[in-house]
Amino acid sequence: MSQDYAGKAPAPRVPCDVAHKGAADGGLNRREFLAGAGLTAMSAIATTVAGAAPGFIESMLRRHFKELSPDEVQERLRLLEEEYSSRFGKKVTVAATPPMENVLFGYALDLSRCIGCRRCVYACVHENNQSRDPQIHWIRVLEMAKERGIDLEEADPYYDHDTVPQEDSFYMPVACQQCRNPPCTRVCPVQATWQEPDGIVVIDYDWCIGCRYCMAACPYGARHFNWGNPQIPAAGLNTDMHVLGNRPRVAGVVEKCTFCIQRVRKGRYPACVEICPVGARKFGNLLDENSELRYLMREKRVFVLKEDLNTQPKFYYFYAT
Amino acid sequence: MRGPINFIIGSVRLVLRGGKAYYAWMAFLLALILWGGIAYVDQLRHGLIMTGMRDQVSWAFYIGNFTFLVGVAAAAVLLVIPAYVYSWKPIKEVAIFGELLAISAIVMCLLFVTVDIGRPERFWHLLPLVGALNVPASLLAWDVLVLNGYLVLNVVIVVYLLYTAFNKQPYNKNFVVPLILLSIPAAISIHTVTAFVYNGLAARPFWNASILAPRFIASAFCSGPAILLILFQILQRTTSIRLQDEAIWKIAELMAYAMFFNLFLFGAEIFKEYYSNTYHLSHTRYLYSGLHGHTALVPYAWASFFCSVVAFLLFLIPSTRKNIVTLNLGCLLIYSGVYIEKGLALVIPGMTPDVLGEIYEYTPTLTEIRIGAAIFSIGFLIFTVLCKIAIPIIQGEYSVDSLKS
Amino acid sequence: MESTSLVVLLLVFAAIGFGVLVYAVTKGSHYKQGETLRVAHAPKDYPEIEWNVELLPGLEKPAKEGEAETFSVPSPPFSEDVFPCSDCHEDMDPNPERRVLEMAHEEIVLDHGPKSRWCFDCHNLEDRDKLRLVSGSLVDFKESYKLCGQCHGTIYRDWREGIHGRRRGYWNGHKSYLLCAHCHNPHKPRFKPLKPLAPPIRPSSQHFTEPSAEQTSKSEGGHS
Q1: Strands A193-195 and A254-255, bridge-based pairing
Q2: Would you kindly state where each structural domain of chain B is located, as residue ranges?
Q3: What is the pLDDT of residues B314-359, one digit of tens each?
C-alpha cells in the first residue's frame, strides 16, 4: 500500500517535511534568480496597474510552498499569523505540522448509521473556516431512496425535512475521497495541489491560479471554488490553523477537505468524526493493523465510490449491520 | 537597422489611414471593448461569482468560446496545407489570411482563458522555469505550451513574409518553408491537445470518449474556413484583394468533406451512447431531450444539428455550393452549428448533471456576455489591423518606397 | 447583388444571435430580484450545538511515546436525582409484578424487544443500584454494556473496537467513548430522529450579494 503510494506521489523538489529540509540546491537558485529578475519587473508593472490593496504585490509574488526553505516557511507562517490576527482581531496560530512517519490516513463511513442530520457539514464549516456567504460546504449529504440503492442521478442534496432519517431514505455524505490515485493533482497545470506522504491531498492557496481544471477532473465534486470573496465572521473563526488546511482562503482559489489536517497531524480526530451524533464516521491510520479502520476493513465489507475510475479512494463506505 | 524601423513606421501609417467606415468600425469595436472591460473590472473586484458558473458547472461560456476559437485557429491549416504542400496557386495568396485569422483567434483564446481563471495575476506560475508548469502530467499545461507556440510560430511567419515584401527583398525559402510546414502539425496539435484537456477526464463520461479529438478536428475544418469565406468576401468589397472563384469553390468542397466526416463521427457517438444506454447517457439526454424537466439546452442542441445538416446539404450539392447566396447561407449555418456545438453543447452538458448527479442549469450572466463581446471585439480589432497592414503589402501597393514619397 | 445578400444574411444571423443572447441572459436563473428564501445558514445559527467539542478531562493532550492509550467514559446518563436508586427503594418492598409505573418512573415507556420484557430482566430486584445479567451476576451501571451485549453481541463487539458508537479525542492516543445508554434510551432504544440542519443554498441562488458593512471590514484582505 505504501509502496503503491510512493510510486504515485509527485516527486517534490524539496521534501515536504519542513523539519528535515536541507538547503536549496543549485537549480533552485538559478530559478530563484530568474524568478527574482522577472518578478521585480512584473511587480513594477503591477504596482502601477493595481495601485491599490497593500500586500497585493507581496501576495502575487509568493513562491510555491514546497520551494520554501524551513526558515522561509517559518517566516511565512509568522506573516500569515500577523495578517489573520489583525484582520480578525484575535490571536491566530498557523502551523505547518509535517506528516507523521508510517501514517496513511483513511476514513470510513457507516451508511447503515448515517441519518442525514448534516451536523458534519456545519462542523466542517466551523472547523475549516469555510466561507459563510458565498456558502461553501465541503461535505454534501445525499438523500437516496432505499429502494433504488446508490443512484446518484436520483440523489437529493437539498432535502429539508422536519426530522431525519426519513423512512424510505438513506443518506450518503460525500466529501474528498483522498484518492491514492488522485486525478485532480495530476491535471493541475501549476502543481498547486499534491498528495502528502500521509495521503492527504492539499492545495497551496498562494499558488493556485483558479483554473478549476481539478474540479472538472474530480469524480466526487469534492473541490470547491471561491467564486466570491469568502466571508468568515471573526466570532466564528477557528484560530487553530494549518498553512495547507483551514487558513482563510481568498477569492479565486480552489479548496477542499484535508481530513482536518490541522487536527489529524496532531493526533486528533477530524471535526466531522467527533460531531457525528450516531458515530457513523471512523478515522484512523491505514498502516496500523490495530486501528479502528483496519479492524472494520477486516470484519465488515467496505466499498468505495466509483471504483471503476481507479481513483482508489482512502474513504470507505460500509454497512456495519 | 533601417529595415525594421521603416517596417514599423509603414505599418503604423497603414493602420492610421482609412475611410469613415474604417474609423466607425474601429470606434465600434473600441466601444465594445470598453463596455466589456468595465464588466471585467467588476469581475476582478467581486470574483467569478459575477458569472453564472458555480461548483456544479465550473466551466462554461468562457471555456466554450475558448474551445471554439482554438478550432478556428487550427483551421488555418486547411488553407496552408494545399497552398504550400501542393503549391496550389489560387489558395496560396489567401493562405496568409488564414494565418492572420489564426493569430487573432489564438489571442482571443488566451484572453478567454485569462478571464476564466480566478487569480489572473498569478499567470506567471504558468511560465516555464519561473513558474511550475506541470508538464508532462497536465494537459492544460500542454495546452498553454502549444497555444503559445502556435501563436509565436504564426506571428513569426506573417511578420517575416510581410517584412520581406515590404522591403522588397526575396524571402528565404529555407527559413520560411520549414516554419510553415511546422505550423501544420502545430495546428493539429493545438486542437488535439485542447480535445485531450477534456478527453482525459474519467470523471466526465460525456468527454471521456476517444472520438472527441477527431470530432474537434472535423468540426474545426468546417467552421474555420466558413469564417474565412465570409471574411474574403468582405475583404473583396472593402480592399483591393481579389479572389478567384475557383479558390472559393475548392475551399467549399474541402469543407463539404469535413462536414460529412463531422456528421459521421457525431452519428457514431450518438449510436454508442443511446444503444449502450448506460448512466453515461444522462449527459446526452440532457442535451437533446432534457433531464428531469431541465431542458435549457435542448433548443440549442437541435438548432446546432439542424444547422450542420442543412449546411452539409448546401455544400454537398454543386449548384448550391457554387451559388454565392446559398454558399454564404451554408457558411453562416455551419458557423452557428459548430459554435453552438463547441461553445454550449460540449462544456455545459459535460458538467450537467454534475459528478454527484445534481442538475444545475447554467445560463450566462450579462457579465460573461459583455466580457465575451469585448474579447471578440479585440479579436476583430487585431484581424482588422493585421489585414490593414498585410493587404497593401502583399498586393505590392505599399512598400518601403512608399515611405519616401 | 452578391454583397447585398451577404449583408442581409449577416444581419439576420446577428439579429438571431443577439435575440438568443438577450433571451439567455434574461431567462437565466441569476437575476431574480427579491428572492427572499435565500438564507446562507452557518454554524452560528445553531447555538445549541457545541461546535468546539470539549474533550473529557485528561484527554487534552495526545498520548506520549510508549504511554498506554486510555479510554474515558462520561458517567451514565441518569435522569436527574434518581441515582442511587436505593435512596428511595431501600424502604420499599420489592414488587416484581407487571403494572402501570407511577411516581418517579411514570415517564418510562418500555419499548424494547418483546412485550414480555419487564424491569427485572435487567434491573436487580434486591439491590436496585445494580443491573443483573442473565447469569445472575450483578454489574454496575458503569458497565451496562455487558448487559446490552448479552443480546446485541455483534454490536457489542463493534462497539468495543470503536466501530459502533462515537469516539472523541486522539486517533492515535487517549480517547473517550460513550455507553450504549448515552445514545439509546434503554427503555426505548430506537435512535430518536433529529431535525436536520439547513440544506445548502442552491447554486442558482448563490448570486453575488453586497457584503454587509461588518463583513466588508473583515474581508478587505480579500487579495492577500
Answers
A1: unpaired
A2: 2-404
A3: 999 999 999 989 999 999 999 999 999 998 899 999 999 999 999 9
C-alpha A1/C-alpha A272 separation (Å) is: 26
Could you report the per-residue pLDDT of B149-186, keeping only the tens digit for each? 999 999 998 999 899 989 888 888 888 888 888 888 89
Residue A46 maps to a domain: no
Instruction: Grade residue A28 by pLDDT with cuts at 50, 70 and 90.
Output: very low
Q: Which helix (H) or strand (E) holds A72?
A: helix A70-88
The yes-or-no verdict on residue A35 having pLDDT over 60 is no
Which of A270-279, B21-30, C48-57, C148-157 is the least confident region? C48-57
What's the pLDDT score for residue A21? 36
| Rounded distance between C-alpha atoms, residue C9 and residue A184, angstroms | 45
Q: What chain C residue is nearest to A106 in terms of C-alpha separation?
A: C171
Residue A284 belongs to a domain: yes
On chain A, the residues whose CB falls within 8 A of the CB of C68 are none
Domain that holds residue A283: 90-321
Q: Given an 8 Å threshold on Cβ–Cβ distance, is A126 in contact with C223?
A: no
Beta-carbon count within 10 A of A82 CB:
12
Domain for residue A4, yes or no?
no
Q: Search chain B and give the residue with CA nearest A67.
A: B132
Q: Which three cell numbers stand for residue B264?
A: 459521421
| Count of CB pairs separated by less than 8 Å, A with C | 182
Tell me what pLDDT residue C74 has: 84
Angle formed by the axes of helices B139-166 and B89-116, to 10°?
140
**For A187, which of B118, B129, B139 is closest by C-beta distance?**
B139
List the single residue in B119, B144, B279 with the smallest CB-CB distance to A252: B119
Question: Taking CB atoms and an 8 Å cutoff, what residues of chain C touch B336?
Answer: 13, 17
B131 touches chain A (CB under 8 A): yes
pLDDT band at A114 (very low <50, low <70, confident <90, very high): very high
CB contact under 8 Å between A226 and B126, yes or no, is no
What's the pTM value of the predicted model, to 2 decimals?
0.89
**Is residue A83 in a domain?**
no
How many domains does chain A contain in total? 1
Residues of chain A with C-beta less than 8 angstroms from the C-beta of C52: 126
Can you identify the CATH homologous superfamily of domain B2-404? Formate dehydrogenase/DMSO reductase domain (1.20.1630.10)
Confidence of residue B91 (pLDDT cuts 50, 70, 90): low
Q: Hey, how many other C-beta atoms are within 10 angstroms of the C-beta on A32?
A: 15
CB contact B119 to A (< 8 Å)? yes
Q: Find the CATH number of the domain harbouring A142.
A: 3.30.70.20
Helix (H, G, I), strand (E, B) or coil at A275: helix
Give the H/E segment covering residue B105: helix B89-116
According to DSSP, residue C43 is labeled: G
Q: What is the pLDDT of residues A203-248, one digit of tens each?
A: 999 999 999 999 999 999 999 999 999 999 999 999 999 999 999 9
Mean pLDDT across chain A = 87
- Chain C: give the shortest CA distance to residue B186, in Å: 32
